[in-house]
Amino acid sequence: MLNDNNLETFIAQQRGADNLHNALGVLSRLSGKWRSLPGHGWNMIPLPYHTKSIKEFEFRLLLNQYDEELSFTPLDGPVPNRGFKFEGLHIKETDQFIAPMRYEQKITQLAASDYPKSGLASKPGSVIHEEVGMWLHLTNQAESQQDLVRMATVPHGDTVLALGGCSDCEGAPEIDDINGLPIGTIRSLHNIFLKPFKHFHEQPFLGEFDPCHPNAFLNKVNAGVKIKKTTTIKVSTKNDGGGVNNIPFIIKQAKTSEMEFTLWIQELEATDEHGNPQIRLQYSQLVYLEFFPSIEGGRIRWPHVSINTLVPA
Hints:
The protein is mainly beta.
């Protein structure tokens, strides 16, 4: 965290590639282009759906296997946020300085399946998601050590602001399980309403992906891989200042209410042709969609989860 609140001094120090790298902090390790390992991107999303032939449930569970291109580009900085505070009879400048990193994400479908079968799934090779946004490093004046910010713009009509921080550990990360079943109904595969989840739990998508335990595939990928060090970045819209905004149609039909994103930057024991440690990324993104009345009041909260493993392109 920086303590220098003098704008001119700070800008003079931070101009240039090396100094910008320092101002970005952990985000500098993301700079460049990344691509998913073949067949390692998976997505699960429940969607409102109804036909006259379906009586016991009114949603379909869509699963995707996908390829991903992800790029990070440092922007010129620092960006100042002006502020001040009173110290007795004197006013002290308390400007905040932000190091920004733009990102672009493009996801292409490899395979898809849904239950019940709708015929609505996109074909292989289709671009099923594009997203642009920014990561920010709050170099000073951050609240509660939440010095990392992700701002996302999604073409469904959603904007996301999530805050958090990072931590380091030796070896591989501990990736916790995510319960893929919705909140606000009987959370059991014996619940006939959740038949689509039971279907894919008993018959995993492509023999690999179980939407009831979506993070399990990440741990499977890590088995046998010698990971020397892991940096974990975790941001959430639940943290102070965070949130999700949606266009009116989304609010009425299937509101996006919350997002939690965890990114693991892994330094492998294996090295590249220059003798440097190989780096790869893994992530798990949990988004809650709200639709249909809940037995607890309000709406059912449906987990929408995406996971992937990426290497430098």
